[in-house]
Amino acid sequence: MSVRLHRRITGEGKPLLLLHGLFGSLENLGGVNQRLQDVREIHGLDLRNHGRSPHTDTMDYPAMAEDVIAYMDEQGMEQASLLGHSMGGKTAMQVALSYPDRVERIIVADIAPVTYHPRHDAILEGMKSLDLSAVTTRGEADKALQEYVETPEVRMFLLKNLVRVPEEEKAGNPNVFRWRLNLPVIEACYQNLADAPEGEGPFDGPVLFIKGAESAYIQRKHRERIDTLFPQARIEEIEGTDHWLHAEKPDEFARLCREFLED
Description:
This protein has eleven helices and nine strands. By secondary structure, it is of the alpha/beta class. Strands 1-3-2-4-5-8-9 form a seven-stranded mixed sheet, sandwiched between helices. Strand 4, helix 3 (about 85-100) and strand 5 form a beta-alpha-beta unit.
């Protein structure tokens, strides 16, 4: 069953749906939003179990694609373009494969339509280990996560999901903070999120894959699978970027997106 996704709508023009990655929210693609809203009506979405969207007991790409289609139906969109990073990129691919008539074109940021080995074990362990009953400041939470996540930027990203418990909900709850995302279900469904999108395709519409030149998520060996599912796909690289290419070189990323959308 689909859920009603939290959204933020800006700009004017044909609709472009932005789909964030694992542990993220629509805010993570805010820079893309700002740079493209003059050419598209931007719909930033929180995917299920993330951000301000509903929590569910299940999480896989077919279900997440249904959420996106339900959102499009609610908005009266016959067709839309999709831009997704990482997990959001797989979701965009799933929508295109399952509902090809509803998709104009897609942009996939640094992910391939393949199954990956687990890459987030330490992050999940660190987030689970955080004793929310003992944390009173973000600094304390950051210090506790250091044992599991060395990179300060990654910890800062993860801790955006740590939100203060509203005053009206504090009765009988001494905690100052809580996780906004649905951590237990994300962990339980993690293999689903590592899996490839389902479907044998093809999606015959235009597809742009944008790869971080220093990232290993899109590899030469993935090209055959990409071409099978998305025969009109092309791949662009952004030098000097890793997996977070849209944040590392936002102007270059937006330029490639703009050129593709206006093609």
